């Protein structure tokens, strides 16, 4: 096992956190692409990316070709992020105590 190599290939935390922040904010959401947007047949566009709504999930494509898939509607948070490098990160909620809310 090349532990040092694995640490060197680890995805930067700030880059990972930026993805859900971008898709949650969805700045300047619109129903049609404008100049500079991803030019693909999708369902909505926003500054920094676009999205397609599928049964049970939403697929996001960000401007740098990062892809994210989020469960929707879902009772727990679940986002899988795939970076252009091929690295994949999963953000998964596994519990939420009833008295927390």
Question: What can be said about this structure in brief?
Answer:
By secondary structure, this protein is of the alpha+beta class.
Share of residues in strands: 25-35%
Overall helicity:
10-25%
- How many E strands? 6
> Could you give the distance between the termini?
42 Å
| Mean pLDDT reading | 88
Low-confidence stretches: none
| Spatial arrangement of strands, main beta sheet | 1-2-3-4-5-6
Please identify the oligomeric state.
Answer: single chain
Radius of gyration: 16 Å
> Which shape, going by the Cα principal axes?
globular
Largest sheet: 6 strands, antiparallel
Order of helices and strands: HHEEEEEE
Total helices: the number is 2
Summing up helix and strand content along with how strands pair, one would put the structural category as alpha+beta
Features of the shown structure:
single chain; 101 residues; alpha+beta; 6-stranded antiparallel beta sheet; 6 strands; globular
Overview of the molecule:
With 101 residues, the protein is of the alpha+beta class. It contains 2 helices and 6 strands; from the N terminus they run ααββββββ. It is globular and about 45 Å long. It starts with a helix and ends in a 9-residue tail after the last strand.
List the helices and strands and how they pair.
Blueprint: H1 3-8, H2 13-25, E1 44-46, E2 49-54, E3 57-62, E4 67-71, E5 78-82, E6 88-92
Antiparallel strand pairs: 1-2, 2-3, 3-4, 4-5, 5-6
